Amino acid sequence: MPRSIGHVTVAAVGRLRERHWLDAQEEYARRLRNYTDIRLVEVKDAVGKSLPDAVAVAREGEQLLAAVPRGAHVILMSAEGREMSSPEMATYLQTRLESHGQLAFLIGGPVGFDAAVVSAAHDRLSLSRMTFTHEMARVILLEQLYRAFTILHGEPYHK
């Protein structure tokens, strides 16, 4: 099975603590490794830790930006982002990997992204107009990345 070009980083605020989320994350990361270099980064959540929200989001933002590889195309996962079908996501992924080589998908905390992170972003994508927990959003993103790679490789998973 041929590997796709490029590297993908998924950086998210907060840790997955429950076993079922950890298992799902690892399953999709394992599957993705058949197609691309995937790196998962968890940054420490600061909201709700006796800091004003603006200070907490700024700290989270600094950590998210530090997790982005140099030269990566930065994509915010945001409710305000562009929605697309799975085949459209596959085309988007292929085009961005061919032109940039490295992609960094960022998932913010419950208060969202700091202005510095928004300024650093090249794109905003949405998983849905619905609201998901951050744990679900991470697993759904990984599943959609996996689905996109299977579409690009003409594999039956998408059917």
Shape-level CATH architecture? 3-Layer(aba) Sandwich
Low-confidence segments, ≥5 residues, pLDDT <50?
A: none
According to CATH, the homologous superfamily is SPOUT methyltransferase, trefoil knot domain
Strand proportion, as a percent range, falls in 15-25%
Fold-level CATH name: Alpha/beta knot
Distance linking N and C termini: 19 Å
Instruction: Please give the share of residues in helix.
Output: 40-55%
Run of helices and strands? EHEHEHEHEH
User: Widest sheet: strand order?
Assistant: 2-1-4-3-5
Structural class: alpha/beta
Classified by CATH, the class is Alpha Beta
Number of domains: 1
Radius of gyration: 15 Å
Count, helices: 5
User: Biggest sheet: strands, sense, closure?
Assistant: 5 strands, parallel
Shape, per Cα inertia axes:
globular
Structure description:
With 159 residues, this protein is α/β, with parallel strands linked by helices. The protein has a single domain (7-158), classed as 3-Layer(aba) Sandwich (Alpha/beta knot). The chain has 5 helices and 5 strands; from the N terminus they run βαβαβαβαβα. It has a 5-stranded parallel beta sheet with strand order 2-1-4-3-5. α1 (19-32) runs parallel beside α5 (134-152) and α3 (86-100) crosses α5 (134-152).
